[in-house]
Every structure is written in C-alpha cells, then in structure tokens.
Amino acid sequence: MTDTETMLAEHACAKLITEYAALLDAGRWEDVAALYLTDGRMSRPTAPDDFIEGRDAILASFTARPPRISRHVCINIRVDVEGGHAATATSQILLFTAEAAADGGLPIQSPAPPMVGTYADRLVLTDSGWRFAERRGSLDFRPAPR
User: Whole-angstrom Cα distance, residue 46 to residue 60?
Assistant: First the structure.
C-alpha cells in the first residue's frame, strides 16, 4: 500500500468508529448491527469477556435493551492497517447518560460520572466498506461506589 492508501484506510476506519457511536446515540440499531460482518462479534465495556456473536445476535442485544438517552464521545482513535484489507484499532470512549425531562426540554444528565472505557477492534474491508470483525470493550476505571 502507498502512504496515501494507508492514510485513506486509516481515515475510513476512524470514521467507522465515530459513525458507530453516532448510530448508538440515535438508537439506530439495525444500522449499528450492519457495521459488523455477518459473523462479527462484540463485547460491551461492562462485560469485556462476554461476546455477542453474529450480526443478528448483536441486533437482538441492542433491541432488547430499555430505551436510554446517551452520548458516546470517541477519543484517541488509533488505527493500524495490516495490508489492504485488515486493520486493528483502539479508541477510548466516554459515555454520558441522561433521563428525559418531564417538560420535554433538554434531557437531564445523570449525576453519575461518565463511564470511561476502551475499545479494541479488528476491522475488515468488504465490498460495503470497512466493517467490524470484532469490537471488545473494557472499562478503564471502576465506577465509584454510590
């Protein structure tokens, strides 16, 4: 790969990671699941060793969750392209949650501090663009006792 091809692949992978967060916050579960390979797998930061396997199971796991208001902030995205069709990436995530306001105005931010975690990703270039083969989440800090 040329330097330019590598930079384009790195950018596309970083864009996939930020798109994932935006789709999560929008509650667009089918679109989130579509970012995985058919046999892709994921684990949430709160359960890093509990993988959900397969696009259909990933979709089911999101649709089974109660509705929530969230904002995921992705930072420190690092991508390493391995040849032209595979890459690994890491990123840190800040998760803010909120409750709907009774007056219909801006949601009310949770008094709990944001969760801080890391994702380790394996990505594959497909005919549809870069997709997650695996997303493994983990927490960077233990939540404070309440």
Answer: 18
Structural domain tally of the chain?
1
**Which range marks the domain in which residue 85 is found?**
3-139
Give tens-digit pLDDT for 74-123: 999 999 999 889 999 999 999 999 999 899 899 999 988 899 999 999 99
Q: What is the 3-state secondary structure (H, E, C) of 24-55?
A: HHHCCHHHHHCCEEEEEEEECCCCCCCCEECH
Two tokens at 4? Answer: 């330019």
Lowest mean pLDDT among 29-38, 50-59, 98-107: 98-107
In-domain check, residue 145? no
Is 96 inside a domain boundary?
A: yes
CB atoms within 10 A of CB 99: 11
Eight-state DSSP code of residue 90: E
Which CATH number goes with the domain that contains 109?
A: 3.10.450.50
Tokens 């089974």, located at residue: 64
DSSP three-state, residue 107: coil
Residue 144 counted as domain residue: no
Question: In sequence order, which residues have a C-beta less than 8 Å from that of residue 61 and are 6 or more positions away?
Answer: 52
